[in-house]
């Protein structure tokens, strides 16, 4: 593919599932960018889609991308344990960075990486894609348009279609850091407020193996926000009917809430009543468009030199909330965020 | 009105708003009963509807009803502070009792009253009418029909259209006893389980006067149930759009949830989108039919000599939950119900 | 029951199902009326509910009611073939009249009866109860509030839960007069316009016995309105899922439409999708409140001396539309209403 | 772009809006195809997207594509009046053909073109994309799965967000051929049945200029199907709230129906009631995915040598229905399809 004039040139690190999603959007749908190169220890496994997308420069060594002289920005889509190191390396090489969340499961590593990126003066966006989802963005807009008035309550429901294997659970960082992190971000996003304190409830109801792995699979977390509102998140590792992703915000002027996206609007009415379809099952299908829109926002920020919509601190703050939730669950009390900072 | 053969003969104590609701249902819609007499210090104010219903025997002294030799059962619809005493008197007089909730704001008075009723061997039903609401009863039925599977989570949302005056708030017993008591009962009803522990969050967001009166107007309570499930109740003293009454239950086989009742099913679509009507505003309109069905259930229990669907203990247990919620709010920790018993 | 001062005194002719509905509303729920007496050749069969409602004056001879000196108005709830005669007798006796539809299956008898009533100067309301239904009234209000703008299209869907027996079909006057008459009235009601011409399609798809009885069980009728709009009605004698009653109006400013009333708002989501309840099955349940409201409107018109909301001509005009529809079906062409007048 | 092994090689004729839609899908999303070349007299205007898609072989002369020795199949996306000629030329050149509808406004030209294609033995698919829409395909599937039982009624509603200019209307072939053709196809698709007779109603309610151009802008057409069912289509050239595309099918086992696709599932509830978003406005947005799926179906048919899901006759039959509808409107009578064949 010929180099496009004025294009922002991107290198993608990690050619697994999420690397593919981003590369495909960048090549086919985002205007004004080109994907120069990719790197992955197992880049050979991605031959088919790299061919399909016409990406010919391929490395097994991420350093080749991180230090590539024709790369303006990198997408860090590798395994979680490598994010922080690549973020640091990229920042030091003066590359702008789109980094998948979480930055790391260790808060000190995250703080250090953010510090390096800040000092390097590069643009950094964290991959909280749900902020760009049509439904949640519409709720945010309703709040901005004052349709809800002063915020009194935020409710987030998040249920996965299937639990992860217990082996994964063991290294996941626990349900709050691994799964609820998105919902904690959603509370911060919708409210535009930080959180003061947290209280958590949890149980093992889905899979006893998750309990044996030292985690829970069902949780409810209440959050006291600095703006005075109360938020409550409920999550489950398994909903038999599919991926359940809803929010409700309530305030002095009214309420805004979302329903799940369905494959079709059909309703069939028979002797058993009226039936609608199940929610979309797979997160890549459900959030497909949000990945595109977040990349467009990143590219726009790069092009205009503005602050991207999800910054480094947005990768750090929800970690404190998750840590406070874990502490609350263990100590059966309200935990101030200041206790875990 | 001529005495009907085999009718259950009822005396109504209290001819205010809720007394009228019950009397009207008993006279016009419940089969096999007759209202023999009523009593209220201000019975004169009820002349119009007593005439309308053809109830001619009227007293200012409740004792006249409680000891009436033609009365089989009494409806205690007077002010809250008199419920426990009338309950005791009725029980001692051998009358069956339908008692509006709360029995009293003081748990010791409630326990004593229930003890007396028990020893007297009379039938006692407590007025948790929402259990008989078409929507909530349908959720209960879905649970019984195993449509939800093992219960993992119960969510109850309850928002009033308008806050009470601060003067009322001062003597109300607080939001948990005064307002959330219905929702605490709903959790017990839907789950069929007692509660082990409670955690509460609260804020004054609706009306500062409520705060000055020593109460909150917005609350979220999380409950650990003995059957392992988690419940979360969110309430507000004011929703500008009307009376918001919804539940959601989630479990291993799926989810069941309700929407608010609307005045009509009309949807108007124009340049601003599609608009549906607001929920019904007034609780007597919203729960109109539930009052009838609860009376029918009471009468059925009397006629068949069976246990009524809402018994004395159902008037006591939610009080402990409310007390634990209040304690949790003050002490910022999870409170075991055993701590407040 | 003591005579109420200033009450409008009503006599009910016909103590079958619809007579009971009206009598019960008049006794229990409509303000400012009393039911003085009833008449029916089989009045003995109604003893139970007449006792329940406290109606003691009972006749087998309708003339006793029609000429009763304490009766201000009569409700004609007898069998269809007697409506016109009783209407004439009542008018001649100077009684105001609420008459169930149809007035008669013979248009000449209807015209004559209306003429008599007009000359007698009595108030006459025809029982098109659906106009008073909460959903359809809301659509009418939306039109009056200009939410729809200039009317372009009206769509009415009407499906019964079960077909009538073929024996009934034979004497019913045919599907247009017997069943669609309500929907033809709905078009006139919503549009506020008369109809110029009609085109009909029909088939026997539900029950071959209906075909053998010379009728159809499925029909679509298109109507050209004098105000320029087009209306289309589709009906079926049988919907397995219950009583299906919906309208949609469309115009220059938008669309308003209704859904069926459901027994409860519950939605159960499982591996098969999300299920809501079937529509209400029985017309007396579905339209219960509309019967009350139409009686309240009749009484209000009597009390205030105003024109009632459904007048004599409203009983006649839809008959012409039904007759034109039948002619159109036979002649496979558009039929002007003027052809059948 | 390198030639892919085993790819089906496609030439696209017409690089306007719909040509772009198909080319983009073929290049980016359909597996196993490549776009070899394009032709359009104004191909220069498409430079930007042709560059974007990496399509380098570009002609002004369609013959270059039609006779290209590396082209297996052509997409005819040019202006309507050229479809039939290109179809004939492509068939004679032995190319498989995907042809946008309508094939032509003149039925004789269409018949001739189909004859040529048939004799040439090439595969021909007509661009009735709505058959591949997620909602309508779900209704078709519900019918195939016997959820509806024997079909009794099909209802199609189709309203455009804005009327075309009167200048276009003059050469459009009229509302039945130009706009309702999709809905007529939908009836054939859903029913799997041909149509016996048609009756039409119409009016000029949206724009008097359309009337002056000799056309109508609002229409209702009733269709008698050979399988006994009745269908009714209502269309309008303008719905202020957007693109309104719904169907309902009703039968012996129940009903299936669709709602419009909305941009988001958000519902905002305030003092004015609950508001949902308007339907998607633009047909390319609304039917975006259907264009992809129809191309995938075409490619699958080519690869497997099977009959494509929309064949030549599907391009011809709805024309007869449209012609019969026009005749019915003029003659105010039911028109048999045999009259216009």
TrEMBL record, chains A, B, C, D:
Signal peptide: none annotated. Pfam families: GFO_IDH_MocA, GFO_IDH_MocA_C3. SUPFAM superfamilies: Glyceraldehyde-3-phosphate dehydrogenase-like, C-terminal domain (SSF55347), NAD(P)-binding Rossmann-fold domains (SSF51735). InterPro entries: Gfo/Idh/MocA-like_OxRdtase_N, GFO_IDH_MocA-like_dom, Myo_inos_IolG, NAD(P)-bd_dom_sf. Belongs to the Gfo/Idh/MocA family. The keyword rRNA-binding does not apply. This is Myo-inositol 2-dehydrogenase. Gene3D superfamilies: Dihydrodipicolinate Reductase, domain 2 (3.30.360.10), NAD(P)-binding Rossmann-like Domain (3.40.50.720). Residues 136-256 form the GFO/IDH/MocA-like oxidoreductase domain. It comes from the Bacteria. Coiled coil: none annotated. Keywords: Oxidoreductase. GO terms for molecular function: nucleotide binding; oxidoreductase activity. Residues 8-128 form the Gfo/Idh/MocA-like oxidoreductase N-terminal domain. The keyword Oxidoreductase applies. It comes from Alkalispirochaeta americana.
């Amino acid at each position: 593919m010929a180099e496009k004039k004025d294009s922002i040139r991107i290198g993608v690190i990690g050619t697994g599932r999420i690397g593919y999603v981003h590369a495909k959007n960048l090549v086919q749908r985002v205007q004004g960018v080109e994907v120069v190169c990719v790197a992955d220890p197992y880049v050979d496994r991605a031959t088919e889609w790299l061919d399909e997308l016409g990406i010919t420069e391929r490395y097994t060594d991420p350093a080749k991308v991180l230090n590539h002289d024709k790369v303006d920005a990198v997408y860090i889509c590798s395994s979680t344990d490598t994010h922080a190191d690549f973020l640091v390396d990229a920042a030091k090489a003066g590359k702008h960075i789109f980094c998948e969340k979480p930055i790391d499961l260790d808060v000190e590593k995250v703080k250090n990486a953010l510090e390096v990126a800040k000092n390097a003066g590069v643009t950094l966006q964290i991959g909280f894609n749900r902020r760009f989802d049509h439904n949640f963005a519409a709720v945010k807009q309703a709040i901005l348009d004052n349709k809800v008035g002063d915020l009194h309550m935020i409710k987030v429901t998040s249920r996965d279609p299937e639990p992860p294997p217990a082996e994964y659970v063991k290294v996941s960082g626990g349900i709050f850091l691994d799964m609820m992190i998105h919902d904690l971000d959603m509370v911060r996003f919708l409210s535009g407020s930080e959180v003061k304190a947290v209280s958590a409830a949890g149980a093992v109801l889905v899979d006893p193996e998750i309990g044996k792995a030292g985690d829970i699979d069902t949780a409810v977390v209440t959050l006291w926000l600095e703006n005075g509102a109360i938020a409550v998140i409920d999550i489950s590792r398994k909903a038999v009917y599919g991926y359940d992703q809803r929010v409700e915000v309530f305030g002095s002027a009214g309420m805004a809430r979302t329903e799940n996206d369905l494959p079709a609007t059909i309703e069939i009415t028979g002797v058993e009543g009226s039936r609608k379809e199940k929610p979309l099952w797979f997160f890549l299908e459900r959030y497909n468009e949000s990945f595109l829109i977040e990349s467009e926002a990143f590219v726009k920020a790069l092009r205009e030199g503005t602050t991207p919509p999800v910054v480094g601190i947005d990768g750090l703050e929800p970690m404190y909330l998750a840590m406070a939730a874990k502490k609350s669950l263990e100590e059966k009390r309200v935990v101030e965020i200041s206790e875990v900072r």
